[in-house]
Input
Amino acid sequence: MKKVLENRGTAIAVTVLLCLIFAVLGINRSIAKEAAAYTRGFYDGVATQEGYTSASLYSTLKSIDTYALTLSSVYADVADLETERETLQAARRTLVDAMESGDIQAMYSANRNLSRTAEALMTAADELSDLSRGDEEKGRDAYAKLQSAEGALERNPYNDSLADFDTKVMSTLPVRLFKALIFVKGPQVFAYKEL
Output
């Protein structure tokens, strides 16, 4: 090895190669650090230009789970809604599992499924004529809260903040130069696909 490095051309080539390797590793480390900071917005909320922090998508999903539990509990004693209620409970379990896994896209999919099953339960409940007025009101109230939380998810600035990640991080000159050597993934979008 000593003889190889005594050759000036070889020594320069090895030095350049080592510099490139360390540069690529440093760039990947910086991207990972920035991606983690943007992902924290999913759990902690996103600071907006207006100077406030939005509610986190994670906490909104926890609220949706609570409203779905309430909705399921309201109709616990209604035999005609047992299938829809059990389907909603299964959707809740899927959402909770996705939240525990930390997979943002899985949380999105599970939430979409929970929303559809809650709607199916409400549709079936609306078709029943023997529901008590109290159960009907409690069910509508829980479903209205669930829908309101769904609206909050849609308005949340988290996904929009990820466009900022692409501009501020992925569009920088060092990243563009070494794009083929970037192995770190960016933050996950709260949707079916990544940006």
Observations:
- The longest helix spans residues 8-44.
- The mean pLDDT is 88.
- Residues 2-50+160-181 form one domain.
- The radius of gyration is 25 Å.
